[in-house]
Design a protein that fits this description.
Shape: globular
Keywords: ATP-binding, Coiled coil, Kinase, Nucleotide-binding, Transferase
Number of helices: 17
Radius of gyration: 29 Å
CATH class of the largest domain: Alpha Beta
Strand content: 5-15%
Bound molecules: adenosine-5'-diphosphate, magnesium ion
InterPro entries: ATP-guanido_PTrfase, ATP-guanido_PTrfase_AS, ATP-guanido_PTrfase_cat, ATP-guanido_PTrfase_N, ATP-guanido_PTrfase_N_sf, Gln_synth/guanido_kin_cat_dom
CATH superfamily of the largest domain: Glutamine synthetase/guanido kinase, catalytic domain
Strand order of the largest sheet: 2-3-4-5-1-8-10-9
CATH architecture of the largest domain: 2-Layer Sandwich
Protein name: arginine kinase
Structural class: alpha+beta
Helix content: 40-55%
Order of helices and strands: HHHHHHHHHHEHEHHEEEHEEEHHEEH
Number of strands: 10
Largest sheet: 8 strands, antiparallel
GO molecular function: arginine kinase activity; ATP binding; creatine kinase activity
Family: Belongs to the ATP:guanido phosphotransferase family.
Distance between the termini: 63 Å
CATH topology of the largest domain: Creatine Kinase, Chain A, domain 2
Number of domains: 3
Length: about 450
């Protein structure tokens, strides 16, 4: 058989399978049986074939029904999530879940490298399994470790369900915190000194000619004293956090003046667009989902920002608030100054959870201490061509390099990087911002050297 013939056979088989031949035959038979043959035979066939198709009006009704059904499903899903969030587990259930969770870590040993696995010994498990933090939160070890039990690729694998978790489960949290923050040899009682934002004027514009830096941002995380952290926030408390932050922002002054938008009032399209502009967060991270971060979504979530979008507060993203200052240039000094002003304003109304040993408290142990991440989005095309050297250089400068959306370096397009301080605990706020300033300047110098070498060579 020639290839054309074989294609014809295949096509014929396809038409048969799809019912086209059958439908056409029926239409032709119908026309054959018709006593008064119509003038417009094609119209007759078309009409016959479309007998079961909806007309425009019917189509609109169906489309409408579908939209309504989708809205209904999403409401039911929310309701289901709400009900799930309200189920209280008995101590026996907690015991069983914790035992199973731990077993799954041990059974999968070769794939688990989390700090949870490293420091949760059978003895500690036994000791902590049925202990809870004080009422009314009553957080179990399981409430903190559920995400690490389920996601074996976690780096840390544990979140604090409330401020007390850090003390009640201290023999587990403490080594995890020291290990993650490079404080293993620190014998001091205090790992994080009092806040010290230093002399703001010493932080400058790192790229006045706007050659390398696209934007600069510094964020802090805070949790309101007396309320649990996201794993154990009730629906009412999510709203309480939002209300407290909303009223605290009402006294903002000058360039900090802005407005608060609750997530439920932002349509999906605007949300996506705001996420793209880096001024809004979204849900989705699997590890945080398991940890309970998105319960009752979008209730209590939202964003406060000034019209220039240079000062922002994210409410209930993970911690109760993420306070951010941004600039679409390299003026880290301006960003830092605004951040300190914004925090000072908020602290006039809100008391935030602090720990004598760990400083500012956050749900994720990796953010403890200053909770500060100062970052620039920067284009270093020549340095980026040699990722190994770039990472080694950054390491030396105590900086972390990521892709611009927080992702892996491998996803970096046209050399845009997210460069920030690697450490958050054990140093003052000022020291960390200064580290970023000095490090970024050093990287820009290295890039310039490569430019010059390229011109000469
Ligand atoms: P963080 O933990 O500091 O909040 P993420 O990596 O989760 O950081 O990023 C949150 C959002 O902030 C993302 O949209 C990210 O692109 C944006 N972002 C972070 N640093 C900068 C920066 N220097 N300039 C602009 N956007 C930034
Ligand atoms: Mg943030």
């Amino acid at each position: 058989m020639t290839s054309i013939e074989s294609k014809r056979v295949q096509y014929r088989k396809y038409l048969e399978r799809a019912g086209v031949i059958d439908a056409l035959s029926k239409a032709l038979i119908k026309l054959y049986e018709e006593q008064n043959k119509p003038e417009d035979a094609i119209r007759f066939v078309r009409k016959f074939m479309c007998e079961s198709c909806p007309d425009d009006a019917q189509y609109d009704v169906m489309k409408n029904d579908l939209e309504e059904a989708k809205t209904h499903i999403s409401k039911l899903e929310q309701e289901l999530e709400r009900l799930r969030g309200q189920i209280k587990k008995s101590p026996e259930e907690y015991q069983e879940l914790t035992t199973e969770g731990y077993k799954s870590l041990i059974d999968d040993e070769e794939n688990v490298s989390s700090l949870l696995r490293k420091y949760l010994t059978p003895e500690l498990l036994e000791e902590y399994m049925l202990v809870t933090t004080p009422a009314p939160v009553d957080a179990y070890l399981y409430d903190c470790a559920v995400s690490g039990f389920e996601h074996h690729d976690s780096t840390v694998g544990i979140f604090a369900a409330d401020a007390d978790s850090y003390d009640v489960f201290n023999k587990l949290f403490d080594p995890i915190i020291k290990d993650y923050h490079g404080q293993m040899d620190n014998e001091n009682d205090v790992l994080q000194k009092d806040p010290d934002f230093g002399n703001v004027d010493e932080i400058e514009n790192l790229d006045p000619e706007r050659k390398y830096i696209l934007s600069a941002r510094i964020r802090l995380a805070r949790n309101i004293e007396g309320l649990p952290f996201f794993p154990k926030l009730t629906e009412k408390q999510f709203i309480e956090v939002e209300e407290k932050v909303r009223s605290a922002t009402e006294t903002m002054d000058g360039e900090l003046i802005g407005s608060y938008l609750t997530m439920a009032d932002i349509d999906a399209e605007s949300q996506a667009e705001m996420v793209k502009r880096h001024i809004l967060f979204q849900r989705g991270d699997e590890k945080l989902t398991t940890a309970g971060c998105y319960r009752f979504w979008p209730t209590g979530r939202g964003v406060y920002h000034n019209p220039a979008e240079t000062f922002l507060i994210w409410v209930n993203r993970q911690d109760h608030v993420h306070i951010m200052s941004m600039a679409q240039c390299g003026d880290l000094g301006d960003v830092y100054n605004r951040l300190v002003n914004g925090l000072t304003e908020l602290e006039k109304t809100l008391a935030f959870a602090r720990h004598p040993r760990y400083g500012n408290l956050t749900a994720c142990p990796t953010n403890l201490g200053t909770t500060l991440r100062a970052s620039v989005h920067i284009r270093l095309p020549l340095l980026s061509k040699d990722p190994d050297r770039l990472i080694a250089l950054a390491e030396e400068l105590q900086l972390q390099v990521r892709g611009p959306d927080g992702g892996e370096l491998a996803t970096v397009e046209d050399g845009v990087l997210d460069i920030s301080n690697k450490r958050k605990l054990g140093f003052t706020e000022f020291e960390l911002v200064k580290t970023v300033q000095d490090g970024v300047v050093a990287l820009i110098n290295a890039e310039e050297e490569l430019e010059i070498a390229g011109q000469e060579g």
